[in-house]
Amino acid sequence: MFLRGGLVLTVVLIPAGTIALAAEELVSPEFAANQWVMYEPDARVQEDIGNRILAVERYHSERLSQLARRWSHVSDDALSFAEGRNTRLQEALGLSIATTAQRVYIERSSLDTALAGALDLQRRVRSGAWFQTRLGEVIVQTAASVAPNTPRFVEQLRSRIKGLSDMERRMALNTDARVVALSARQAQLPRDAIARLADAVADGHRVARFYDASVAAQNARVMGEIANEMAQTRSAGDYQQLAEAAKAAARSPWNARGFLEFGAAALLGTIAVMAWVGLSTRADFPRARARGIRPLAGEPSRLPRWKGTVAGAQSTTLSIWPREVIFGSHCTRNIGRHAASEHATHVTIVTDQGVAQKGLVDLVKASLAEAGVRCDVMDQVSREGPHTEIAKIAGWCKEAGTDLLIAVGGGSVIDTAKAVGIVLTNGGSILDYEGVDHVSRPITPLYAVPTTAGCGAETSPFCYVRDATHERKVEILSRRLIPACIFIDPLMTRSMPPDLTASTGMDALVNAIESYFSTWANPLSDTLALDAIRLISENLRAAVANGNNLSARQQMALAAFEAGQASVNTRSGAVHALGHSLSGRLDLPERIGDAILLPHVMKAYLYADGHRMAKVAEVLGESVAGLRERAAAQRAIDAVMLLMVDVGLPITLEKVGVDRDAISALSEQALQDPILRSNSGALTRADIEAIYEDAFIEYAEMEMEAAPSQGTRAEVREDSQRAEADFQRRDSEF
């Protein structure tokens, strides 16, 4: 029956469609103006094309009007910005000079107070008042210990008076020397103040120039985009597409012309289905079981339903995330179980001698032994591992048959393990893979067990290797470098000494702040970065002061992970670009160089985005309520500098052995670093050299409050307290 029906449709419809198609070639009726009008098909298509062209022209005219208004708005903004150049320069100069003058005033007040105290002490020593006061105290103390009017009393009193006389002479000499030193410092201060003010003026000019250049570059970019859009014109191909679209619209699937194009295939499909159904038997259509239709009979469906509205797609994503992260105390006990589940037969633990000597590797070995996985230890990793060392370790692992690498250590160890994994599976030299996505094969499976809370190398797709031949740092980027599993155990960081805790913590802070100011920053990375900044500000001092403070260690480990995750998804900036030059050329730990450079690069960030810098100050715990944006932003820089001083880190490049003569070469190398492109604001070579120059200068207020230098108020106070304590100790001996 179905076959007969299909044949009837074929015999009837195909001739009918052919006749209608032939009729349509002549005329096409259309009801218009209360009457039927006969149109030729081509005339109707031409009319449709004309209407489409008019619509496109109206859209183009409106678009040009909008672009012209936008151009006018941007031009007006650029003009008003240019007119305010002198005002901004005066503001920058005023703030810089006022800050320097305040520092000089505080130092002058401190010197005046210290000099007045020293002169008073000198007067009392020379007049004998100091000796008389001490003599009375000596007599009372001697009488309290020995009965008066006895030979022993006289003997002890004579001995103590002799010691007191010697002390008076030394006191006179020390007081005179102190008065001379303070007077010289006081006389030198005006000359130093002039030099500082000159530096403040230069700094104000540099800051204003940097800000103007950043805004001008942004305006030029926007105006260039507008100009490119305004220059876009339509070509003959565009009109050809309009004509093709009009012709396609005229070919409706419901008229005779469209029958052969659209309906013939559907008819043939219908005939085929009819044939299949007609040839099928009853057994080919089994009856559905009752339980399969229960939801249709009234039972509520267990399928979940969306509630509310579904948000549209967003462009902000975290594109890089580790496959598995295990966080918590004693989580390293699970390493053996994970390795066994991966069917690992021979594990190589990559570490350095310092970590191995502290017994941290033994915890990993015990877990592997408990799971029955054989392992070896390679503990010859050095800081900033050179490429020759990586080739040696890779050869050793290849001979041993390593099929799983476990990196136990800091950033250098983890980077070395990544590099070894690349060479094991891809061959060649590690220097062959410099750049982006040059690693064609997956690396040897890698577990990362960080023993520091800082650089975030465990979450990173980057690998940094030192080219020992050319004394430079090689950067390798590939998603294949992300470890298969990360074990973040805060207990593994308790053995870090205070200086390493401080420097790695500042390294995490660098990652967080650079991520927040990166041109790749997004709401998700901002959340991670700001929380990391908060955790570091609240816990780094406690972790440095007491390494066994497990709560502080846990928070710092979490902060390092968050900062690292934010950093790898937003790219690094100027701090790392300038730090790479330092660590590559001068064999300086990158975390130390980055920490020293951070406050000075933040000054550039301040003028590029003061609002974000003020937010950083707030997260760092600074009181910014009621302050102007720029003043609040400045507090962020001061807070970072004070944090460095509190945890005992050097704050100038000079203190870590960097020579000023190397600034030119360092700047040239930093300018070529590709990660400088993600920096917030364009940096010229002069700007980079200025940052290096500033990193040789100590902040005066930080010296006075936390790390005093000669002649400051804090040092004078400490000297006075030390002298008084020495006097009391000597008095007790008498």
Can you tell me about this structure?
By secondary structure, the chain is an alpha/beta fold. The protein has helices at 2-24, 41-83, 85-127, 129-145, 151-231, 236-250, 256-279, 335-341, 353-357, 360-370, 387-400, 411-426, 498-516, 523-545, 550-568, 574-586, 590-608, 610-619, 629-646, 663-671, 685-694, 700-705, 713-733; strands at 28-32, 35-39, 325-327, 346-350, 374-378, 404-409, 435-436, 446-450, 462-467, 472-477, 485-488. It contains 23 helices and eleven strands. Strands 3-11-8-6-4-5 form a six-stranded parallel sheet, with helices on both faces. A three-stranded mixed sheet has the order 7-10-9. Strands 1-2 form a two-stranded antiparallel sheet. Helix 3 packs parallel to helix 23, helix 11 (387-400) crosses helix 12 and helix 16 runs antiparallel to helix 17 (590-608). The protein is flat.
Query: CATH topology of the largest domain, anyone?
Result: Dehydroquinate synthase-like, alpha domain
Q: What is the second-level CATH architecture of the largest domain?
A: Up-down Bundle
Assembly state (oligomeric): single chain
**Helix percentage range:** 55-70%
The total beta strand count reads 11
State the major sheet.
6 strands, parallel
Q: What are the segments in which pLDDT stays under 50 over at least 5 consecutive residues?
A: 21-28, 31-39, 287-317, 700-721, 726-734
Rg over CA atoms, rounded to whole Å, is 40 Å
Look at the helices and sheets and give the structural class: alpha/beta
Number of contiguous helices = 23
Strand percentage lies at 5-15%
- Number of domains in the coordinates? 4
Mind telling me the CATH class of the largest domain?
Mainly Alpha
The overall pLDDT average reads: 78
- What's the arrangement of strands in the largest beta sheet? 3-11-8-6-4-5
CATH superfamily of the largest domain: Dehydroquinate synthase-like - alpha domain
